[in-house]
Structure formats: C-alpha cells, structure tokens
Amino acid sequence: MKLNSKKCKEMTISFLQYHLPLDNAIYIDGSPVQSVSSFKLLGVLLREDLSWCDHVDYVIKKANSRLYALRKLKKAGLSDKDLVTIYSSFIRSRIEYASPAWSTLTQSQSDLIESIQRRALRILLPEMSYQDALNYTGLKKLSTRRHNSCEQFIRKLKLDNGPINPLKDVVATRIHPNTHNYNLRSESSWSLQTNTERFQNFITVKNNY
User: Fold this and answer.
1) In whole angstroms, what is the distance from residue 126 CA to residue 132 CA?
2) Other CB atoms closer than 10 Å to residue 66's CB: what's the count?
3) Nearest one of 147, 148, 114 to 133, comparing CA atoms
4) What is the distance between the alpha carbons of residues 83 and 124, in angstroms, rounded to a whole number?
5) Fewer CB within 10 Å: C terminus or N terminus of the chain?
6) What is the tally of helices (H) and strands (E) in the chain?
7) Which alpha helices (H) appear in the chain, and where do they start and end?
8) What is the pLDDT of residue 8?
C-alpha cells in the first residue's frame, strides 16, 4: 500500500501542559507529513491530549443545525410521535455515533451533550419539564444510553470468540477460577491498579465486570 502524504497526519499524544519542539519530521516520498493537534478519524475527532472537547463541540454544532429543522416541523403541525421519531433518527443518532469510543466525558461535557436533547424536547413539549418530557416520550437520558451502549459493546467483545478480536485479552474476565478446594474469605479476583481517573474511566476498564 502506498501512502499519500497529503492525506496523512502526524499527531503526538501528550498530556503535558507544554510542548517540546520536535525536529524529527516525518516524510513520505520526500514530502513532509502535516503535524496536527487534532484530526478526524472515522467521524470521531481525536485530540493530542485524548480529551473530547473538540468532538463534543463538533457534535453540538451538527445537532444544533438539525434542531432548526425540528422546530420548523413542529410549527408545520407534525404529531409528537412523528417528531420524536425524527429526532431519534436524524439528531440523536448523530449525537451517539461511535459513543463507546468517546464515552469518557467530563461532567461538563456530558451536560453539554445532554443539553441537545433538552432543547429538542423543549421544542416538542415546551410546557413540560425535561424529566416529564422523557417520561411522556419514553426516551432515556443520553448519559444513560451511552452507559448502556458501553456495556453492550463490552458484552459483544466477550462473546466474540473469532480468531480476529484484538480486544479479547483486554476484556477477559477478571474472576480467576479456584484451583483448590479451600473456602477463602474473598473471591480470587483482581483489578487494575491505576493512578489516573482517565484510565479508570476507559471503557474496557469501567464497563468490564
């Protein structure tokens, strides 16, 4: 496979607050590869510090442009049921695209994502509170749906016994079978020892039961 330097990007993963100048530029066929701090990979915006602020901003902008259409359809007299279907199909689906990959949001980022659904339900049911609108429409909070999506993703990985499953060892069960007949006071289990909240919230750690 021949690489195209114009379509390739170089990004250095770093959690430092300052950046050291790097002189080791990458070249392909004599052409330098552009160095970036963020880029889009399969529809998800990645940052050099592995935070999701750029992707959250991107999702919010996309969703806001579609909320305008929802407001117009509401004024056109569509039923609540049809409006909920349109929201779920054309707005929420875009918000939740590849959500297991970027589920490790901060609380403020999660609130920003949730505000999209709040605005949508305010357009549909302006006289109701957010919780009442959720109950009326049968919708769930986006944070709850992301959590459920992550759990479902991990379950599918555990059930995938195919020869090509790069995450199989990562999500292997944490419970070790006993190799003796003694009854111990605690189960033979282990958990990863981590020093960072970032790692503890990673999908294969947080949702791997």
Assistant:
1) 11
2) 17
3) 114
4) 7
5) N
6) 8, 6
7) 53-75, 80-86, 93-95, 107-124, 130-137, 142-159, 197-200, 203-206
8) 85
Q: Radius of gyration over alpha carbons of the chain, in Å?
A: 22
Q: What is the pLDDT of residue 162?
A: 73
Other CB atoms within 10 Å distance of the CB of residue 93: 10
Amino acid identity for residue 109 in this structure: Q
Long-range (24+ apart) CB contacts under 8 A made by 72-78 are 74/123, 74/124
Is residue 71 within 8 Å of 123, Cβ to Cβ?
Answer: yes
Residues 98, 155 contacting (CB under 8 angstroms): no
Strands 34-35 and 31-32: unpaired
CA dihedral 141, 144, 150, 151 (to 10 degrees): -140
* Torsion over CA: 75, 80, 84, 90 (sign): negative
- CB–CB of 12/22 below 8 Å? yes
For the whole prediction, is pTM greater than 0.90?
Answer: no
Amino acid at 120: A
Using CA atoms, how far apart are residues 136 and 131, in angstroms rounded to an integer?
9
Report residues of the chain scoring pLDDT below 50. Answer: 175-178, 188-190
